[in-house]
């Protein structure tokens, strides 16, 4: 009787152990993985605004308009400063021709505009430029080979053209209508025109008046 009771107790213990193991397996299957967090529409990532693009750039550009006032033919050259200076005109002519040495420079009214006349020489070649004194445009250009080339000016040794005009009007008061600097019989000479009638010749190296031609 005692032996039977022990056998029943052992069987009951095995049954209870099996039931406990089955409950653990069910619990592990039922629990499953922890669900991941899903971002909702309207989150920071979804609402980022692209501030770097914007509207496409306008590729069209307005044409540059030249609204600079052109001096008329009646101005007095004495003391007048043009938009394009003598140095500017020399640089334009030198850049275009490749020559460095001017043998004549002048200011004159031609074809409805004030123009710099810049004549250069180098290695038997001569270039003649007419350059708009307001815009810097090359309005006329000629080039030719010369066996007897002109002697270049020494611009570092001469008085300035404004000083030459001042000297001329002291001698003959009036409106300066054009002027030029060139060599005459080996001398560097300014020829200043007063009122389109009187020409005053000035030694460009000394500033002395050489001749007045009425």
Automatic annotation (TrEMBL):
It comes from the Bacteria. Residues 1-20 form the signal peptide. Residues 56-66 have a biased composition (Acidic residues). Coiled coil: none annotated. Residues 84-140, 162-212 form the PepSY domain. The keyword Signal applies. The keyword Signal applies. InterPro entries: PepSY. Residues 25-78 are annotated as: Disordered. Pfam families: PepSY (PF03413). Keywords: Signal. Residues 31-42 have a biased composition (Polar residues). This is PepSY domain-containing protein. It comes from Flaviflexus salsibiostraticola.
């Amino acid at each position: 009787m005692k032996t039977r009771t022990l056998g029943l107790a052992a069987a009951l213990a095995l049954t209870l152990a099996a039931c406990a193991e089955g409950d653990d397996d069910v619990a592990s299957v039922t629990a499953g993985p922890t669900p991941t967090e899903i971002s909702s529409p309207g989150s920071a990532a979804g609402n980022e605004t692209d501030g770097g693009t914007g509207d496409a750039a306008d590729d069209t550009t307005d044409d540059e308009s030249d609204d600079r006032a052109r001096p008329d033919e009646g101005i007095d050259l004495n003391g007048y400063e043009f938009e394009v200076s003598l140095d500017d005109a020399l640089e334009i002519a030198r850049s275009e021709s490749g020559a460095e040495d001017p043998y004549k420079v002048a200011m004159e009214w031609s074809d409805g505009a004030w123009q710099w006349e810049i004549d250069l020489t180098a290695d038997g070649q001569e270039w003649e430029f007419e350059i708009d004194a307001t815009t810097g445009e090359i309005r006329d250009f000629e080039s030719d080979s010369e066996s007897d080339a002109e002697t270049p000016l020494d611009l570092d040794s001469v008085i300035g053209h404004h000083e030459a005009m001042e000297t001329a009007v002291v001698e003959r008061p009036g409106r300066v209508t054009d002027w030029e600097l060139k060599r005459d019989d080996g001398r560097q000479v300014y020829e200043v025109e007063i009122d389109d009638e009187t020409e005053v010749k000035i030694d460009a190296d000394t500033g002395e008046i050489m001749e007045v031609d009425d």
